[in-house]
Amino acid sequence: MIKPQPSVINIALVGGGGLCREILEKTTFDYLQEGVDAPILAVVDPDPKAPGILYAKEYGLLTFSDYRQLYDRRYNIHLIIILTPDQEIFEEILATRPPRIRIMSCAVFEIFWNAIGSEERKLREQKSAMETVLNGIQDSILVLTPEMEIVEVNDAFLKLSKRSREQVIGSRCHQVYRSCEEVDMICPLEEVVRNQQNSRQVRTRVGKDGAERHFEVNVYPIWEKSGKISKFIHISRDITQRMKEEEEITRRLEQMVEERTQQLRETHAKLLHQDKMASLGKLSASVVHEINNPIAGILNLLMLIRRIIDEDQLQEIDLPLFQKYLDLMETETRRISRIVSNLLAFSRPKKAEVRPLDLNQLIEKTLILNANLLKVNQVKVIRRLAPDLPEVLGSEDQIQQVFMNFVSNAAEAMETQGGGTLTIESQHLVSEGRIVIYFKDTGPGIPKEDFSKLFEPFFTTKTDGKGVGLGLSVAYGIVKEHGGYIFVESDPEHGTNFRLTLPLSTVEKPLQGGIDGGHENTDRR
């Protein structure tokens, strides 16, 4: 479908005074200018030196001394505007004009012209206000055509570029922004055209002083009704100081996080030590009874040997009996040595040193230390330790502390019901690359309402003096630091089952103690 072309109305002005010149200065009379549908073609005035006649001649318009010459069809005049207040001229033209030519009187035209002038003043005021606003903005602002030609610019850009308005207006944007010539830079204007939306980029430029400056560039398209882009609004903002401030804030935050992390590590180390001391206190009473038994046996055997020697009743036939007594004494002494060694190993502060661990062996050491506690509380231990269990990498001191908590908690839980059974089981999950250790007791179980607080520091269900509520919290942090998890199942009919998983993979970072982690509580009630 061919788009209809607007009809052209050719205008002639009669009266070449000052108003005529003003009209010619403020209106367009070029046939070739896009959007002009009413060009002024001719000016009529008997005075060849009238201002309007001189201006018209300068721009190549038709000039006549007699208005009747406008009637010639060659000039194709459609409208005569009378700019002189002489009523006789109006009546003469009205009487002599051809029907195809229309007339506008001076009085009527002045009404329209004054109205146009009023609107023009408003537009000038608005333009002045807009220029004031634009020049008051510290961001650099450019207005560009689709051909990337600069048609407007604010003072901030001129100040930054150290150029005059005349040097910038009419230039191409790449002539002003030299960085746009870099091969790896994406032109924001082309990005707007390609994506049909606003463009935002952050660019880095090196000044003459060699210092880097960072700029945030935003380009907004102005759309015509036809869907084409009529203008680009290019806004550039120096964000160098802002980026420096953000980097400084980030650095301070990282420093604060590091300091807080260090505080948490120190706090966790204190909790580890406090829990170990609590466990050591419980062990001390138990170990005293455990050591007293073999010492009493050794003492009795020594007194028996001394009595035999003192009574001179020693005969050669008694040597095998003496040998048996010595063997028993050696056995009991070694037993004492093992207990004391394990107790010392547990009590001495050690650096969290990662090395291969035999978890079955650690379980046995833990049971030796807790032997008397288990016996006093009438707890029977069932071992189901997998043979050829692979070693894991971790801290022997910390993992043993975890085992100590599970064993002592189980023994104390079953104490309230006169004893029970503690089943300790180890498994190797080949497909998952993990070791699983189970500590299952037949105690009264954990109340459902306590599950959410089970691993919180200082939470305990024990009576006063029995615990400080750190055991499970510390165990939780240690296991998490080793890349493992603790899962809990508990109900009053089947007791409590703690399932501990540890990976076989290498622990890359030194163990510092942990605060967060993962655990799962399930209730079969």
Largest sheet: 6 strands, mixed
Regarding CATH, which class of the largest domain? Alpha Beta
What would CATH call the architecture of the largest domain? 2-Layer Sandwich
Q: Which superfamily, in CATH terms, is the homologous superfamily of the largest domain?
A: Histidine kinase-like ATPase, C-terminal domain
Radius of gyration, CA atoms, in whole angstroms: 51 Å
**Major sheet: order of its strands?**
12-14-15-17-16-18
Helix content: 40-55%
Query: In DSSP terms, counting alpha (H) and pi (I) runs of 4 or more, how many helices?
Result: 14
CATH topology of the largest domain: Heat Shock Protein 90
Structural classification: alpha/beta
Instruction: Name the average pLDDT.
Output: 77
Whole-number total of structural domains: 3
Number of strand elements: 18
| Beta strand % | 15-25%
**Rough shape?**
rod-shaped
CA distance, first residue to last residue: 80 Å
Q: State the low-pLDDT regions, or none.
A: 29-36, 464-469, 506-525
